[in-house]
Structure formats: structure tokens, C-alpha cells
Here is the input.
Amino acid sequence: MTESATADAGGAQAEPGRTPAEASAASGMRSEASEERAGERASLDTVASTGGDAPASDGDSAGGETSSEPPAKQKKAGRNLPIAVGVGVTLGALVLLSLYTFKQIFLVVMVGFLLLGLRELTDAFRTREIEVPFIPLAAGMVAAPVVAYVWGTNGLVAVVALTTLAVLVTRMVDGAEGYVRDVTAGVFAIGYLVLMGGVVALLMKPDDGDHRIVIFIAVTVASDIGGFFAGSFLGKHKLAPTISPKKTWEGVTGSALTCMLVGGVLVATLLDDGQWWQGVIIGLAAVVTATVGDLIESMLKRDLGIKDMGTLLPEHGGVMDRLDSLVATAPVVWLLLELFVPA
Here is the structure.
């Protein structure tokens, strides 16, 4: 007889008022309960010692066989090329329509896009608690192209100087803390957008200014198109992986060839006394400035910790994501056209 049974039997005999049959039944029930508890403890000890999982419940076993295959990886959504092309064609049509109907309308279109870009830039600065005075910047953004178109370079210089002074004075209202940080960002915005808007107006000022604008925009867009297709199909060697991981030397080569071809054809076709070799030089310069402009934008976004400057243009990002190459290319194209084909 086991110790538990002996104890149970002894306990049963010690309890008064019970018949021997009742005492025996109670003893048997206690023995069964003790054996169940001992079995549970042994099972838990086995699980702990082996590091395994507890046995599956009846509900788990009844659910059918478990799949040993890993879950399928979700494919990353890529750029919707038809939408991207559609947006680009729409913007191009808007530019051409405004230029070749009444070219001053193009100033209105340009200022509108630059104001949207300025808003995106100041909002991006705000993610790092950089508060740039928007009102004086917006006033300068409107004035610079208009004054440059009417009064030329002298008027543009005056607007840029006055806008800079207005930013410095306006920011004083918010106190000394962060003053240098904020006005530095404001002066950057003046040089990056306000001045460049005025330079584009200088391009448009001559009688053939509509053609000059088309050349400027076409060689810049050609850089993007040539780089996209050459980089997509041939790209292997990274250009600047720490700044823009997707850019490749093959893409830059495609940009250069496309820019030189477009520049040579358009300068010889659209401008009086324009030579094809002048267009080739303009295209070669444009691919450098367009690439640098794109890299500058990438550096800004990396520093600010954002992916795109905005979401206004489907499959393109924000307005600034389309203007980055243009603002860097504008002064170079203007200067070269002034040298090769003076107005």
C-alpha cells in the first residue's frame, strides 16, 4: 500500500460518523485527485526543461493542419508611370499654352507654382522648428519676376535686397532665440526661389523669350527623361549613394546625351542666329545643373527627415520635387543664351 493510500485510509478511519464504504470512496477520490496533480506537475516540468511549447489545445488540433510555408512577402508598390507621365504632359501643356497665347500669362503660372513651392519649403523647415517669415518671402516671390520682366536685372537686384532686409526685420518680432537659424533659412529661400524666379523672367523678357523658356524647360526635362530610362535599364554604378541612392552614372550619361540632342535641335530651330553646337553646350551644362539641383533637393530632404516636399502632384511628390532641377538650371541657361545669342 502506498503512503498516500495509507494516509487516506488512516484519515478515513479517524473520521467519526462515516460507514466504512463512504470512507473508502472518499479515500479513492482523494487518491485520484493527487495523481492528476502529480501528472500536471510532471508535464510542466518536462516543458520547462526542454524549452518547448505547451501542448496544443483541442481547439488548435481541431483546426486542421498548420502550414509550414512562410507568409508571402508583400510586394512594394512602385511608381505609377502612366499617372506620372500624364501629370508631366499636363504641366507641359499648361506651360506651352500660356507661353504661346499671351506670354505674360506664363509669369502668373510661374509665380503660382513658385508660391506653392515656397509654402512647401517653409513647411519642411518647420519640421525642424525653423520658423521662416513667410509673408515677406511671398511678397518678394511675386515682385521678383514682375520687376525683372519690366526693369531687367537692376530691378531684380533691388527686389532681392529689399526682400532680404524685410526677412531680417520681420523675424525680430519673435525675439532673439533662434534668430540666426530662422533668418539664415529665409535668406536661403530668397536665393533658392525668389532670385531664380526673377532669372526666369529675364529669360522671357526678349521678343523671342517664349522660345528661350521652351529651350530652358526642354533641356531640363530631357535630363530627367534620359536619366530615368538609362538608369532604369542600364544603371549599375551608383553616382552618390549617400545622397541619392537611385542615381547612377549610366543614368547621368543618358541625361547628357538626351540634353545635348534636345538643346542642339531647339537652339538651331527656334532662335535666329542660333547654332546647333551652342545648343549642345547648353544641353551639356544643363545636365550638370539639373543633376546638381536634384542632389541639392535630396540633401535638403535627408537633413529634414522627409521623403517628399509635398503630395500635390500625383506620382511626382510636391511642387518643389519638380522645381529642383529647374531652379538650378535657369541661371546657367540664361547666361549661356546671353553669351551665344544676345537679345
About this structure: The chain has a mean pLDDT of 81. The beta strands are 238-240, 244-248.
